[in-house]
Design a protein that fits this description.
TIM Barrel; two-stranded antiparallel ribbon; alpha/beta; 30% helix; single chain; 10 helices; 12 strands
Length: 383
């Protein structure tokens, strides 16, 4: 309760701090001694929700988003975003993504950084460089320390996650590529080595960043709604780093990802199952739907109907600990024009209409401005 009261007291100060900090169009020098105490993003008050977005780029690698992408989404949705989600790919740079974070801050939104420690964007393969073992052994500590120092110097609130969709085999930090269900190669002989290595790497990264004083970072533990592979050792709870290391929880829930996708499950059944497991794992943590989306043009599933039903459930607080949501507003090629994917609101009048109407109807439920709290405040939210 103290956290919520303190957070509200800082709500009006945050947009002013953002406007003053981000007016330059090019990268500003990092100030190692910010004039004001560090602040972090607080959960929204009870009954409120944050609305965010991944606004989509051009390369498909999630790190080249631009202010025009955000503007196109917001114009279509009729609502500004409280956070903007994007990837910080270490095959591109190990630096804190300052330029992107600055323009996001200038708009009044919070940068939400996917810390992607990988050597390429190719999926379903073992990582050759930024392995969990290498991270645990400290081989990249200097890079992580520098990143943490830069995050602190940014001074404004940040959301960050490492190990996006950790229970999904498409990413190299998944246990499949790091020992899977073997119990003899690492740590506790009663635990599967793959998830156990992930937990150790996650904690190592967070410890280093916090050690640099970056208390403005809210750490998000992000899972996929379904475990892949669907094996007991790969249950997402096995990857949970603990309450001291995960400030918020996040989940990805998708409908069809291409117009010809055979998987066509509705949002609510997936969310019901995932939320039940998340709540059992960490009942007091805020949950965000960090990614949800559905491809337009599917032969059986209407993207606008899928999105409408998803928004209806979230906005009605069907899942009480859910504190926010962000649509995956991207398009990409699949090798055949008829099978290309778009989830972008600006490409679909019907989809844009759903968002514009649903968000307008629920305007009193949206926390339109991010709320800042002192960085030392414990992040709690009761439904």
């Amino acid at each position: 309760m103290r956290a919520r009261v303190a957070a509200l007291a800082f709500a009006l100060a945050l947009p002013l701090a953002f406007c003053g900090a981000g007016m330059a169009s090019s990268a500003e020098p990092l100030d190692p001694k910010p004039e004001h105490p560090l602040q972090r993003l607080a959960p929204p008050p009870a009954g409120k929700l944050y609305h965010g977005v991944y606004p989509g780029g051009k390369s498909g690698e999630e790190d080249d988003i631009a202010e025009a992408d955000l503007a196109a989404y917001q114009n279509a949705a009729g609502q500004s975003a409280a956070w903007v989600y994007f990837s910080n790919n270490w095959f591109r740079s190990r630096e804190f993504p300052l330029v992107t974070a600055q323009w996001i801050r200038k708009t009044g939104a919070i940068p939400f950084i996917r810390l992607m420690l990988r050597s390429s964007s190719k999926e379903n393969k073992r990582e050759p460089l930024f392995t969990l073992d290498a991270l645990i052994a400290g081989k990249f500590d200097a890079d992580i320390k520098k990143w943490g120092a830069q995050a602190k110097a940014f001074a404004s609130p940040l959301l960050a996650e490492y190990g996006t969709e950790c229970n999904g085999e498409w990413f190299p930090w998944n246990g499949k590529w790091n020992g899977a269900d073997d119990t003899k190669g690492f740590g506790d002989p009663e635990k599967a080595d793959g998830p156990e290595r992930f937990v150790a790497a996650y904690r190592h990264i967070v410890d280093i960043v916090r050690g640099e004083g970056a208390r403005n970072v809210v750490w998000v533990f992000h899972v996929n709604a379904d475990d892949a592979p669907d094996d007991k050792w790969n249950r997402f709870a096995n990857y949970y780093p603990g309450d001291d290391y995960a400030d918020w929880l996040a989940v990805s829930v998708y409908g069809p990802k291409t117009p010809e996708d055979n998987e066509a499950e509705d949002f609510a059944p997936q969310m019901d199952k995932a939320y039940k497991r998340l709540h059992k794992m960490a009942p007091d943590k805020p949950v965000i739907v960090a990614e949800f989306g559905c491809a337009a043009g599917h032969r059986k599933v209407s993207a606008d109907k899928w999105a409408a039903e998803a928004l209806d459930g979230v906005l009605a607080h069907k899942w009480p600990n859910v504190a926010g949501f962000s649509w995956w507003n991207e398009r990409w090629e699949n090798g055949r024009r008829a099978a290309d994917t778009t989830m972008r609101l600006q490409d679909s009048k019907a989809l844009a209409k759903v968002f514009r109407e649903k968000l307008a109807e629920a305007k009193d439920k949206l926390q339109t401005q991010p709320i800042a709290a002192p960085a030392e405040t414990e992040q709690k939210r009761k439904p």
